[in-house]
Amino acid sequence: MFDKFDLNGDGEVQYDELMYAVAGELDQFRQDLVMRAFKKLDRDGNGVVEVRDLQGVYNTKFHPDVKSGKKTEDEVLAEFLDTFEMHYSLLDRKSRDGKVTAQEFMEYYRNVGASIDNDEYFALMITNAWNLDNKSYSKGFGAQY
Fold it and tell me: For the whole model, what pTM was predicted?
């Protein structure tokens, strides 16, 4: 049973590995929502989300590390994408390549969804996070509401 939880084979069961083992798969309702968000991010429709898909729609100019000159805007975008790849890398350590596939994106939300037992709340969270209802919002971060 220990080996089933120790996904990366390092002899230890990390929190992420435990969550992966107990989370279960996303139901069809949640999978459909996640795929809507993925397709919105994949602006060029090539099946992967890359930095170029985020340029111009994800503003990093006000990120503290960009403002201070520690990182470029592209480095911050790459870190953002790595958030999604990190979860999938439990299954495949070689998968962290700066490109997020639908499978990696789905895996991220499978892990997030493990702590959200209400489908309505999951739908609200992902709809608001990715503006799936295409609402118009006033200026937010670093500006007036």
Answer: 0.75
